[in-house]
Automatic annotation (TrEMBL), chain A:
Domain of life: Bacteria
Pfam families recorded: BPD_transp_1
Name the record gives this protein: Phosphonate ABC transporter permease protein PhnE2
GO molecular function: ABC-type phosphonate transporter activity
Subcellular location: Cell membrane
Location, primary (coarse class): membrane
Keywords: Cell membrane, Membrane, Transmembrane, Transmembrane helix, Transport
PROSITE patterns, sorted: ABC_TM1
Domain ABC transmembrane type-1, chain residue ranges per copy: 80-263
TrEMBL record, chain B:
Keywords (A to Z) from UniProt: ATP-binding, Cell membrane, Membrane, Nucleotide-binding, Phosphonate transport, Translocase, Transport
Position of the signal peptide: none
Record has Metal-binding as a keyword: no
Protein name in UniProt: Phosphonate ABC transporter ATP-binding protein
GO terms for cellular component: membrane
Keyword Metal-binding carried by entry: no
Start and end residues of each ABC transporter domain: 2-246
InterPro entries in the record: AAA+_ATPase, ABC_transporter-like_ATP-bd, ABC_transporter-like_CS, ABC_transpr_PhnC, MetN_ABC_transporter-like, P-loop_NTPase
GO molecular function, one term: ATP hydrolysis activity
CDD domains: ABC_PhnC_transporter
Species for this entry: Paenibacillus pini JCM 16418
Lineage: Bacteria, Bacillati, Bacillota, Bacilli, Bacillales
Pfam families: ABC_tran
Amino acid sequence: MRAPLPTPSQPSPPVVDIQPPLRYKRYAGWILLILIIVMCSIQTKVTPYQLITGLPQMGQLLKEMFPPDWSYIPTIWAPMMETVQIAILGTTIGGIIAVPVALLCSYNIMPNRFIALPVRMILNLVRTIPDLLFAAIFVAVFGIGPFAGMLALVFFSFGIIAKLTFEAIEAIDPGPLEAMTAVGASRLQVIRFGVLPQALPYFMSYLLYTFEVNVRAASVLGLVGAGGIGLLLDRSLGLFRYDRACVIILLTLVIVLIIDYSSTWIRRKLL
Amino acid sequence: MIEFDNVSKIYPNGSIGLRNINLTIQKGELVVIVGLSGAGKSTLLRSINRMNDITSGDIRINGNSVTQASGSELRLIRRDIGMIFQSFNLIKRATVIQNVLSGRVGYHSTLRTMLGWFPKEDIDLSLTALQRVNIREKAYTRADQLSGGQQQRVSIARALAQEAQVILADEPVASLDPLTTRQVMEDLKRINRELNITTVINLHFIDLAREYATRIIGLRAGEVVFDGTPEEATDEAFAEIYGRAVKHDELLGVL
């Protein structure tokens, strides 16, 4: 119902003085932040002094990185591709597992909190464990090699994608769900025709984002023996071959940039 | 035939939604429900397909109790009732025909519909439904590229594709301009007459109610305070329903 039209005979309400919000709150916030930073620095003994004394050594390291040892590329090409392949497998499998779990912990799909809450707890637990720890555990279980790395990325991607997707699902327009219920759709049909078309572009976008993150993550998995380029990176650093490490870093950069640009382009098309 | 038998609805906070409603709506009627906002119009309409539960009483459609239906029975009842919403409730990113086809899911097993493939007959039926509301040529356009009036017609087509026996429309024109309001009302009226689909519409424009309804039901504070033909629904009768004189913004105006 619309509001009734104002009648001109009514007197206009008296003008009330408006006070601008006080500024001290904002200043207090800044002071608090600075205090916290100073406290942290004192407690951990991490000071700008160390940065200044370490600077010459950083320069030395950079100098040793150049010129990069380009002849190293044929050696690192296969492990580099293995890194990307581990990332593709890990992201895809993790993403597929994330879908039903994300549905289970969205309150608008699963009003039963006895299911949604425990699932969310498990999800939080999975996200607490860093990817390298996952890799180290799986290396211990399945032995050294890319399988352990792939499995680590499955869990890692699952945690990220499930979390982001369930938040996207909770933000969808409830109207189409209502319409599908009114049409006589079953629970799964409501999800298929009401939720999926709305959530799919977000899911794809998160999948691509996680893939980017995973390529970077996969390049250090080798440090714990979980396959990929990380093993060679570790070896180069151990032998003080910074020129080789530099080539690995540059090649990773090129691949990450390619994936970054193409996934940004695809995501723009999707949303 | 829709029967309300002593239907009451009390919200958990104690406020009364519906009080002792007894109504019988015959096949093919075009009933418009009027009343102030909060009078229980939506509650009444949405209780017919049990989108809202009632507290006591019984609602029957062609003799089958909606109130007592089990999960799968309820889905079959809902399949035969098309619903039209104020905000259209379409999947905006999907094409028009996909939206209309979604009205067919009740006719197929869950497993079959998961891939989103519908039989040829369903597609033909959906195109015919779109033809009936004059937007067949938009079948493969994304729903969010249509105007509000066109989107509402897609949702009418969805109800037609359902092969619904009853259409419930909850404020179907509240977010449309006067011109498209008339077009949507004309569509609903024409479908009601040509296909003999029982139609129940919530409206707050009283001149529209008089113009399109075959029967007007007035609600006030959850009770039926008026039930009669459009001719009987005089300004005095509306003043009774609203508890005050009719205001000019409650009229859509003549075009």
